[in-house]
Amino acid sequence: MSRATGQLPLSVFGARADAAASNRKNLDGLFSVALFMVFITVVLVSLLVGTRIYSGLNRQQTMIDDARLGMNLLVNYVRATDATDSVGTGEGPEGDALVLMEHLRSGTYETRIYLYQGQVVEEYAPEGKPYAPEKAAQIIASDSFSFAYEDGLLTITTDAGTTEVALRCAKGGA
């Protein structure tokens, strides 16, 4: 303070103004950092949630695709052997078996489709040979397997759904 006037020197006011400006800059910088951290947190949480949602949807689509593939394989087996006297039934280890027969010069061969330990399986063997489910190829996971043949239409039902195959052999085709 000036002794004669009782006022503070100008340098003190300048120092106070500089300190206030410095504090405001520090607060502005702190606010900017906090806002940036909130933004990063929101982006990371959104990314995490989006990844989990996509993973769930992808898993579900894969299960649907696997089921559709299995049902299409069943249809293709039937269509590949669609000839006169080619569709029959047999007794599988866990119920009825759909038997698709191929009559060749070397003998008759069967493609047997049946339920075994929670799987619909396919086994290719000469006619009359005993069932060997441990050697069968898995087609689709299912706890149920049934089929019905009526008026030239074969209906196959599993846990994945029901599919129908119109057989040419029912109309006398070979």
Overall morphology: rod-shaped
Helical stretch tally: 1
Number of strands: 8
What proportion of the residues form beta strands (DSSP E)? Answer: 25-35%
Distance between the termini: 118 Å
Instruction: Return residue spans where pLDDT drops below 50 for at least 5 consecutive residues.
Output: none
Order of secondary-structure elements: HEEEEEEEE
Outline the biggest β-sheet: 5 strands, antiparallel
How much helix, percentage-wise, in residues?
Answer: 40-55%
Radius of gyration: 38 Å
Structural class: alpha+beta
Instruction: Please tell me the overall pLDDT.
Output: 82
Strand order of the largest sheet: 1-2-3-4-5
In summary, what is this structure?
This protein is α+β, with helices and mostly antiparallel strands and 174 residues long. It has one helix at 10-80, and strands spanning 87-92, 95-104, 107-116, 119-126, 137-141, 145-150, 153-158, 161-166. It starts with 9 loop residues before the first helix and ends in an 8-residue tail after the last strand.
Describe this structure in words.
It is a single chain. With 174 residues, the chain is an alpha+beta fold. Helices cover 41% and strands 33% of the residues. It is built from one helix and eight strands. It has one helix at residues 10-80; strands at 87-92, 95-104, 107-116, 119-126, 137-141, 145-150, 153-158, 161-166. A five-stranded antiparallel β-sheet has the order 1-2-3-4-5, covered by helices on one side. A three-stranded antiparallel β-sheet has the order 6-7-8, with helices on one face. Strand 1 (87-92) and strand 2 form a beta hairpin. It is rod-shaped. The termini are far apart.
